């Protein structure tokens, strides 16, 4: 492949940020399922022992939140909903048939929904997690508040797992997406097909710098 045919989509710091978040999510989700379902208690061994899982689970959760916050500040302006996103949503049946719709920027409407859904659920998980975090914070809250926080934490965790599963499925479905997050580049053909407005913006910046 010609070097000029490659377009940088994610820099090394961006990719590291993404994979730190991903691995933290993996550890937190697996150990959390072990807490929630008795038949999945064996999953708590992902941290070595169930006792270590109970200690490290909240710390890994905080690290995941902090890592995602870095991603939030990097990408929030790319994830604002535009008129083209409404067109994309109205033609979701064409998207399901692997057709591209609208003049998509760096991210399409589906990716934006994942982004905003993840930040909302992570905020819920952080707040509720602090309330139920023993022995550090839970003693400062009344029992009814702790019970409510447990419910919020559980539902938000399940919802986030579903959101991330959709994210992974979409990444596998669109050929070239995984390469972008592993190696950092996409082809110009991929960019023009899936994110035409983003491709044009890159070309304009390139021409201005020449």
Automatic annotation (TrEMBL):
Residues spanning the membrane: 20-43, 55-73, 113-133, 145-172
Keywords for the protein's UniProt record, in alphabetical order: Cell membrane, Electron transport, Heme, Iron, Membrane, Metal-binding, Transmembrane, Transmembrane helix, Transport
Domain Cytochrome b561 bacterial/Ni-hydrogenase, residue spans: 9-184
SUPFAM superfamilies: Transmembrane di-heme cytochromes
Topological category with respect to the lipid bilayer: Multi-pass membrane protein
GO MF terms held by the record: electron transfer activity; formate dehydrogenase (NAD+) activity; formate dehydrogenase (quinone) activity; metal ion binding
Pfam families to which the protein is assigned, alphabetical: Ni_hydr_CYTB
Domain of life: Bacteria
Cofactor: heme
InterPro entries: Cyt_b561_bac/Ni-Hgenase, Di-haem_cyt_TM, FDH_cytochrome_b556_subunit, Formate_DH_gsu
Keyword Nucleus included in the entry's annotation: no
Gene3D superfamilies on file: Transmembrane di-heme cytochromes, Chain C
Subcellular location as annotated: Cell membrane
The keyword Calcium appears for this protein: no
Principal location listed in the UniProt entry: membrane
GO cellular component: formate dehydrogenase complex; plasma membrane
Any one Gene Ontology BP term: respiratory electron transport chain
Homology family: Belongs to the formate dehydrogenase gamma subunit family.
Annotated protein name in UniProt: Formate dehydrogenase subunit gamma
Organism: Mangrovibacter phragmitis
């Amino acid at each position: 492949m010609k070097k000029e045919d490659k377009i940088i989509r994610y820099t090394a710091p961006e990719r590291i940020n993404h994979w730190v978040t991903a691995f933290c999510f993996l550890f937190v989700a697996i150990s959390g399922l072990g807490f929630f379902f008795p038949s999945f208690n064996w999953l708590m061994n992902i941290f070595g022992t169930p006792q270590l899982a109970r200690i490290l689970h909240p710390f890994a959760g905080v690290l995941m939140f902090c890592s995602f916050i870095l991603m939030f500040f990097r990408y929030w302006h790319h994830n604002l909903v535009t008129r083209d996103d409404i067109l994309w949503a109205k033609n979701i049946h064409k998207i399901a048939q692997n057709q591209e719709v609208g003049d998509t920027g760096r991210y399409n409407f589906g990716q934006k929904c994942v982004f905003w859904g993840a930040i909302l659920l992570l905020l819920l998980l952080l707040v509720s997690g602090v309330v139920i975090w023993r022995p550090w914070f839970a003693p400062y809250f009344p029992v009814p508040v702790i019970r409510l926080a447990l419910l919020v934490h559980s539902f938000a965790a399940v919802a986030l797992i579903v959101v991330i599963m959709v994210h992974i499925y979409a990444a596998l479905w669109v050929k070239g997406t995984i390469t972008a997050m592993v190696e950092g580049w996409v082809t110009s053909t991929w960019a023009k097909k899936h994110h035409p407005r983003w491709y044009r913006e890159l070309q304009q910046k390139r021409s201005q710098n020449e």
